[in-house]
TrEMBL record, chain A:
Chief site of localization: membrane
GO biological process, one term: transmembrane transport
Listed name of the protein: Sugar ABC transporter permease
Record key words, sorted: Cell membrane, Membrane, Transmembrane, Transmembrane helix, Transport
Pfam families (UniProt xref): BPD_transp_1
TrEMBL record, chain B:
Protein name as it appears in the record: Sugar ABC transporter permease
Membrane topology classification: Multi-pass membrane protein
Family: Belongs to the binding-protein-dependent transport system permease family.
Matching Pfam families: BPD_transp_1 (PF00528)
Domain ABC transmembrane type-1: 76-266
GO CC annotation, single: plasma membrane
Provenance organism: Streptomyces phaeoluteigriseus
Bilayer-spanning residue ranges: 12-35, 81-101, 113-132, 144-167, 188-212, 218-237, 244-266
InterPro entries: BP-dep_ABC_trans_perm, MetI-like, MetI-like_sf
Length: 312, 280
């Protein structure tokens, strides 16, 4: 594969018990890695290359004979199509809102759970549960059991206090999806931030307290800087999952009422409209967006990782 | 008791109460879902909500198909096969790879590790269409084995990362000592590495199971009648007119039970797994 090392065969005296050559040993070390590596390249990289190729073709699955090479036309169409541009904006809005809201809520909950109190384990369990509901089931729960304007729980509770009876999904469709996702993702953020809080230097905090620092000062000048990378990690991992969200959009609004995000649009343009070329171009754009996020994510993970390795 | 500890303790109790309140608010939708699943359809669809209505198993009977609808069992079996088999494949591929990235690391092992991670950041939609076309042309559409392969690739990077992090917790000195004592590789793996790494491996398996069980997009696009999984079944559940709340709650709860069970079983290692081993 790479440099071929030519060993001076003739001059080496043949040992009585032959040692395996360095190259053989290197391959023996590499061997356990190869099945996983080859599998990943075959299943994830090849389809993406195919997507890239298809994105340069005008190809509607209903008219397979009319397939032709069009260069960058699909990209131009995707970028000028107002629906698609809207779905880019929706994706950004959905991701940013959900990640920020669940980070803030997750931080508050992590701070509450970091203290000792009676029943802490029970509360932790109650808080994790929403994350462990099948996403489709969670979306159905919000759509039918909570948001339903006639007999949903939200309007039922509002009824008691004589409040209004809004039609949640019709009046604020994107917010409705966001709320259900925040409910599911807050526990995830809380778990990461709680791990961050518990890895703080206790002696340092004790010293600050002895020196007369207030709770706010300790939070602002010790806790928050320490948490910074955990916040980054939560935000970036959350973004990676929420940018790709399909389940909630599909279930709650079926992409209607202006809530179609990019994954839903890609799904729709080839599964329902059979526009293979356009769908691929949109898919490539999603990837470019993800690469931007992923570059930051990889940097954060790698800095935490290197610290971990150097500590070991 | 000094004067300053009383307000401090009162504040602590207040914050504890606040934590309980938050826990209850977050859990309320689930508790309400569970309660509704045991109500009759009429009692489930009232405003104001009927908290104390009579309990019944009708929702569950309806879900399991005795009420005349489609049986959920084929979908539940498909989901079980796809999740369990893909998780086994993941372990089979990830364990040797993690070994080559931690205990006997190859050169540039961090680069390899980050290659695995980068594949996880490639959105599913990026490869969906070619996979669909490939499946259609090879007759693999609506075949559960296609999902097994895709779920394996979906979880393999996470598993490699998690197991790399769990295996590197095995002290090299112990392995060296065993080797000096004349233990061969299989013995070292079984007697030295496995006991230390086993809890981590179990948690990895549970997390992979959860992700496969939850997956919707691939299953929705690539399966039909035969290989339909539980989440797809759930999305097609509300086609009928009339009242269906109790039925939906029962269905959602039953389908979420394996995930809830696996999640709580893996609770201690959940963060480490979900953060790809970056947070211990």
């Amino acid at each position: 594969m790479t440099a071929t090392t030519t060993a001076p065969l003739a001059t080496t005296p043949v040992p009585t018990r032959r040692q395996p050559s360095a190259r053989l040993r290197a391959w023996a070390t590499r061997a356990p890695l190869l099945p996983a590596l080859i599998f990943m390249i075959a299943v994830t990289q090849l389809p993406f290359v195919a997507t890239l190729v298809i994105s340069f073709f005008d190809w509607n699955a209903l008219y397979p004979d009319a397939r032709s090479f069009t260069g960058l036309d699909n990209y131009q169409q995707v970028l000028t199509d107002s629906d698609l541009r809207h779905s880019v904006w929706t994706t950004v809005l959905l991701t940013v809102a959900v990640v920020l809201a669940s980070l803030v809520l997750g931080l508050a909950l992590a701070l509450l759970l970091d203290r000792r109190f009676r029943g802490r384990g029970v509360v932790r369990t109650l808080l994790i549960a929403p994350f462990l509901v099948v996403p489709v089931a969670a979306a159905l729960l919000w759509k039918h059991v909570l948001y339903n304007p006639e007999y949903g729980l939200l309007n039922g509770l509002l009824h008691y206090v004589g409040g209004p009876q809004p039609d949640w999904i019709s009046s604020t469709p994107l917010l409705a999806i966001e709320a259900s996702l925040v409910w599911q993702w807050t526990p995830f953020m809380m778990l990461i931030l709680l791990a961050g809080l518990q890895s703080r230097d206790q002696q340092q905090m004790e010293a600050a307290r002895v020196d007369g620092a207030s709770d706010w000062q300790i939070f602002r000048y010790l806790t928050l800087p320490h948490l910074r990378r955990y916040l980054e990690l939560g935000a970036l991992l959350g973004s990676i999952y929420i940018v790709q969200n399909f389940d909630a959009v599909f279930t709650i609004t079926s992409g209607g009422l202006g809530t179609a995000n990019l994954p839903y649009t890609v799904y729709q343009s080839f599964y329902q409209a059979h526009e293979n070329g356009l769908a691929s171009a949109a898919g490539v754009l999603v990837v470019i967006g993800s690469i931007v996020i992923a570059t930051f994510a990889l940097r954060v993970v790698s800095s935490l990782f290197r610290e971990e390795v150097s500590r070991a | 008791m000094s004067a300053s500890t009383v307000p401090a303790r009162r504040k602590g109790a207040g914050l504890g109460l606040l934590a309980w309140l938050a826990g209850i608010v977050f859990f309320l939708p689930l508790a309400w879902m569970a309660l509704t699943s045991f109500h009759s359809e009429q009692d489930a669809a009232t405003n104001p909500p009927s908290f104390t209505a009579a309990l019944t198993l009708d929702g569950y009977r309806e879900f399991f198909g005795t009420g005349g609808g489609a049986s959920p069992w084929p979908a539940l079996v498909n989901s079980t096969v796809a999740s369990v088999v893909s998780t086994l494949f993941v372990l089979l591929l990830a364990l040797p790879a993690a070994y080559a990235l931690s205990i006997r690391p190859v050169k540039k092992w961090t680069d390899v590790l980050f290659f695995f991670l980068s594949t996880k950041m490639l959105p599913v939609v990026a490869g969906l269409l070619p996979i669909y076309l490939f499946a259609r042309n090879t007759g693999m559409l609506d075949n559960i084995w296609l999902l097994v392969i895709l779920y394996t690739s979906m979880n393999l990077p996470i598993a490699v990362w998690m197991m790399q992090s769990f295996l590197s917790e095995v002290p090299v000195a112990i392995i060296e000592a065993a080797r000096v004592d004349g233990a061969r590789l299989p013995t070292i793996l079984a007697r030295v590495v496995a006991p230390i790494a086993l809890p981590g491996i179990a948690a990895t398996a549970l997390i992979c199971f959860i992700f496969s069980w939850n997956e919707l997009l691939f299953a929705r696009v690539l399966t039909g009648v035969v290989a339909e999984t539980a989440p797809v079944f759930l999305t097609g559940f509300i086609t009928s007119q009339g009242l269906f709340l109790a039925k939906v709650c029962a269905a959602s709860l039953v389908i979420s039970l394996p995930v809830l069970a696996a999640g709580f079983a893996a609770q201690d290692k959940l963060v480490q797994g979900l953060s790809l081993g970056a947070v211990k």
